[in-house]
Structure formats: structure tokens, C-alpha cells
């Protein structure tokens, strides 16, 4: 099958993991991971430290071999997809040669790809035109990260893999960076990024994959992940309220009372709220919302770790 038919064919996933495991001696880094990532989406890859994100990415880039299972990138073995120019990557570690300018470096990098972007276009897309004539060795940490991103997109590849790309960036640089990344996804690229910045994943990702201890825990849209956490938040103001008045409400997972302001995390917001009204309480400025992605992520991974958030905090709340 030709490249053209594989890339752009909605039937062919950008990345497919089938029962993939990887161990380093006794350490089981990835466990029977089965996952298909569709083309043309921005996909956040989330997991606590040591969950197996980098290992999975290195396997799909052909840098590491899986101990068992099968990985395909646009229907091809990873190395073949890399040499065909389908994949651009920015890994966690890796410096830049110190004595060349950013423009020289990008010129060199584009030469390694079969269908690269023009260097000026790369500079523009990565938002680093102002750094073009600077020596790579003199860049700040955040600037270095942006140049590394430019290298990842230089080949105009169909899949862009980014492992914690904003680590070490300040807020402003991160903002600029996420915009560049979003633009790549809007151009139809598949962007797979591992991150610990969940708020940003919340805003950018079309799809979220959560792994923990090498196993897949969740795969869906941001709202799927939030729904999977199964909790909602009720916030309101109630002058004179005491914590004791709220302790017997049903389905409460956690309860915060600060002066007149109350925040309840609940596994059934309707039942908790009706019970509140049944007690004769009349709260004001009521907000009922799903959890943020960060809270949902914590709930899902803690549940998997057997940390039993629900039980301990419910007891506390009762
Ligand atoms: N080369 C290696 N040799 C031995 N163990 C390794 C090696 N690389 C990773 N590991 C182990 O495999 C597990 C998964 O690591 P990995 O780096 O893939 O996780 P991660 O999700 O990317 O973590 P982080 O968010 O901290 O970057 C960890 O327990 C790690 O210590």
C-alpha cells in the first residue's frame, strides 16, 4: 500500500499498540498495552511518574523494542514509519550542538527528511524567528525547548511525538508553545504529547490516554475522562453553615467548609443536592460542575493504586 493511502485513511490509526509489554529486567514498564490513536488529533498521554509514557513513546519511535506485542505507525513497523518521514519527535532529554546557529541547525535537520518544510516556515511555525541567528549553546532552557520543537516539526511529519515538551518553560513560553502545537493539530497532524500540565491538556487535547503502572486506565475525550472519575463538584455560599450540618449528606466524597463557602465533591450531585434542600437549607450562588481534568486524573489513578479516596474521605465526611 502506498504512503498516501495509509496517511489520511481514517481506517488506519496513526498509532496502534496491540498487547505491548516491555520489561527492563524485573521492572515491568509497559503491561499488555492495547491502544489505537486515530489520525489528525491532539492526544494527551497522561500518567504519574514512572507510568510508562516515555517507554511507550520510545517503542513507537522504534528506539526501543517491545518485549512482546505489536506496534504499528500508520500501518507500518515504527522504524519504517520513521524512515518514510512520517514521524517527528521531541524526547525528554537531548541537548543541541552549542556552536551552530538555530538557522544552521534547522537547515541541517530539514536535510534529513524526505519532504521537509522550508526553514523560514519552521521558524515561523515554532515561533522562534527571533532566535534564528542565535547560537544554540547560548539559549535559555525554555528557548532550547522551542528549538527542539522546531526540529520535531521540521520534517512536516504526519505524527509529532512530544515527551513533556514544556518542562522548564515559564508560563508565557508555555502559552506560545501550546499555540504552536495546537496549530499543528489544526493542520491535520496527529500530535501525541506526554505532559504533567493537566490544565493545558484539558484545553488542547481532543483525546486523553491515561496509563498507570504500564497499564491503560482510560482512553477517551476530556469529558469521557471526567465522567469516568464519576465525581462532580457542588459549590455554594451559605451564611452561618457549619461542617456538622453537612456531614450526613449522601454520596459525599469530600467536604470543604470555609466561612460561608462550601465545596462538596460527590459521586451523585443530584442526590446530594436534593438532600441538602430536604434539610431545609437554602444555599446561594450554587455551582454544580464536573471535576477538572486534574482532579479526574488524580481520582482515576488513586483508585487504581487502591488508595481508596472514596472510602476514607466519605468516612471523614460522615
Ligand atoms: N532503561 C531503563 N532501565 C531500567 N528501568 C527503566 C528504564 N527506563 C525506564 N525504566 C523504568 O520503567 C518504568 C517506566 O518509566 P518511563 O520513563 O517510561 O515512565 P514515564 O511515565 O515516562 O515517567 P515520567 O513521567 O517520570 O517521565 C519506571 O519504573 C522506570 O524506572
From TrEMBL:
A GO cellular-component term linked to this record: plasma membrane
Membrane topology: Peripheral membrane protein
InterPro entries, A to Z: AAA+_ATPase (IPR003593), ABC_transporter-like_ATP-bd (IPR003439), ABC_transporter_ATP-binding (IPR050763), P-loop_NTPase (IPR027417)
Residue span(s) of domain ABC transporter: 15-238
GO biological-process terms attached to the record: response to antibiotic
Keywords for the protein's UniProt record, in alphabetical order: Antibiotic resistance, ATP-binding, Nucleotide-binding, Transport
Pfam families in alphabetical order: ABC_tran
SUPFAM superfamilies listed in its UniProt record: P-loop containing nucleoside triphosphate hydrolases
A GO term for molecular function: ATP hydrolysis activity
PROSITE patterns xrefs: ABC_TRANSPORTER_2
Compartment(s): Cell membrane
Name the UniProt record assigns to this protein: ABC transporter ATP-binding protein
Organism listed in the record: Actinospica acidithermotolerans
Lineage: Bacteria, Bacillati, Actinomycetota, Actinomycetes, Catenulisporales
